[in-house]
Design goal:
The protein is mainly alpha-helical and 181 residues long. It has a domain of 109 residues: 50s Ribosomal Protein L17, Chain: A. Strand 2 and strand 3 form a beta hairpin. Helix 1 packs across helix 2 and helix 1 crosses helix 4. The mean pLDDT is 84.
Length: 181
């Protein structure tokens, strides 16, 4: 029975799975983005986010805790010196998963997992979206219709123009219409 066994075992024994996730986390910290399958990326996200949270507090205890998971001194140093500085103000959600399609051989769903604060393209788009301020549709339409109508009237000289008198159309009743018999 698999009662209360919620995480994905990824088809591996415990030692293999822990080693794989440790290596993937080290690669993610080193390269800031890696391409992998969706299942591995979701498992890695659960594995690495608590380590990133621990890296915000640079103490000997947190360094040793992170080292016990990563087993790589250089990546621990990189994490605490560079990555922790960028994520210091972020309350969570340090990684992003972007789906890229399916692998050719076995049709496994592929994706890219990356550290959020290191994708310059998305940071630029976010800055552009913040700068462009949107307004309510109703006020924008009113401003467009009022402004062009008011501008020509103010610019035109005051000249009296006679309007032609309206011509009334004759009213036809039923009695006057001839009936075809």
């Amino acid at each position: 029975m698999r009662h209360n066994k919620k995480f994905n075992h990824l088809g591996r024994q415990t030692a293999h799975r822990k080693a794989m996730l440790s290596n993937m986390a080290s690669s993610l910290i080193q390269h800031k983005r890696i391409a992998t399958t969706l299942a591995k990326a979701k498992a890695l996200q659960v594995y690495v986010e608590p380590l990133l949270t621990k890296s915000k507090e640079d103490t000997t205890h947190s360094r040793r805790t992170v080292f016990s998971h990563l087993q790589n001194k250089e990546m621990v140093t990189e994490l605490f010196q560079n990555v922790a500085v960028k994520i210091a103000n972020r309350p969570g959600g340090y990684t992003r998963i972007l789906r890229t399609g399916f692998r050719l051989g076995d049709n496994a769903e592929m994706c890219i997992i990356e550290l959020v604060d290191y994708n310059e393209n998305m940071l630029k788009e976010k800055a552009v979206k913040k700068a462009a301020r949107t307004r309510r549709a109703g006020t924008a339409k009113k401003a467009e219709t009022v402004a062009p109508a008011a501008a020509p009237v103010a610019a035109a000289p005051a000249v009296a123009v006679e309007e032609p008198a309206e011509v009334e159309a004759p009213v036809v009743t039923e009695e006057e219409t001839p009936v075809a018999e």
